[in-house]
Amino acid sequence: MAVELTSGEASTWRLIQRLSDLATGVVELQIRSAADLSSAEFEVLRCLVDAPDRQLRQNELAALLGWDKSRLSHQLTRMQHRELIDRQKSGRVHAVAVTRTGVQKFELADNAHVAAVRSLLREHLSVAEREALERTAAQAVAAADAEEDATPSRPASTPRLRARTT
Prior knowledge:
By secondary structure, the protein is mostly helical. It has six helices and three strands; from the N terminus they run ααβααββαα. Residues 30-129 form the HTH marR-type domain.
């Protein structure tokens, strides 16, 4: 016999999923409106802007994003055509650097991202509620990371859960 969620657990889970979808949609819309960037472009640019010398090896970028090489390669090709990034190859090393255009678009998008996230948090959560949600999320991510670390092999396409500060 299968174990089922209680009605309260099922309801909570559906609300968490819906909230996640709504928040992601609001933030993505703001980023797109402010800088004409997709969420994938924004995440790639975030990694590059935060990196030393604003560049990373392609395999380092894939690891940071939790993406497979094929997905990253296709994304970088699109971004290179939009002049958001440059790619250089030296032997077997593929380096990715953010361009001036990429930095400018990232800064516009990042400001919109911050404003959207703060608006979502301030409008709907008290400080105590936000702190409780943050603790709960951090505990869940830490438990998932510990479980992944204990698992001998994990498919390369399965991203690690990471807590991020925004």
